[in-house]
């Protein structure tokens, strides 16, 4: 159960004090017409404006940092894409060279085999035994 006392001073400020824990639960400034109308004095407006500007500057600085980070990441991704393209082109060139060399090796292998079969030095002993 909340029991409150209301205290009033000369400036018509009301404070409601909670009896159970001694905390203030309601503060009313009855004679503060600027507060009631929602208008701020020029000093308060400047302070509020400065706070808003500081908040906006902080947000703008944070956005600038995020933009720089995004730009750095985009550049890094582009660089990696170019590296991948270069590596892919190099792999394709190596594959082509490998196929060309395999083909040349087959031609040379066949040529050597033909030379060996045509030469009597490289004929097998089976053919010599057939002559006898």
TrEMBL record:
It is found in: Cytoplasm, Cytosol; Golgi apparatus membrane; Golgi apparatus, trans-Golgi network. It is a peripheral membrane protein. The keyword Cytoplasm applies. GO terms for cellular component: cytosol; Golgi membrane; trans-Golgi network. The keyword Membrane applies. Residues 51-104 form a coiled coil. Gene3D superfamilies: 1.20.5.170. Keywords: Coiled coil, Cytoplasm, Golgi apparatus, Membrane. Belongs to the SCOC family. Positive regulator of amino acid starvation-induced autophagy. This is Short coiled-coil protein. It comes from Columba livia (Rock dove). The gene is SCOC.
């Amino acid at each position: 159960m909340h029991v409150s006392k209301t205290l009033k001073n000369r400036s018509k400020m009301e404070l409601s004090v909670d009896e159970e824990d001694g905390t203030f639960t309601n503060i009313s400034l009855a004679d503060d017409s600027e507060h009631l109308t929602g208008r701020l004095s020029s000093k308060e407006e400047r302070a509020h404006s400065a706070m808003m500007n500081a908040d906006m500057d902080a947000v703008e600085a944070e956005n600038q940092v995020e933009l720089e980070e995004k730009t750095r990441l985009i550049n890094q991704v582009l660089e990696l894409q170019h590296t991948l393209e270069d590596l892919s082109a190099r792999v394709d060139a190596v594959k082509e060279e490998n196929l060309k060399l395999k083909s040349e090796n087959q031609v040379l292998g066949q040529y050597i085999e033909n030379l060996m079969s045509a030469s009597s030095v490289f004929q097998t002993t089976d053919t010599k035994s057939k002559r006898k």
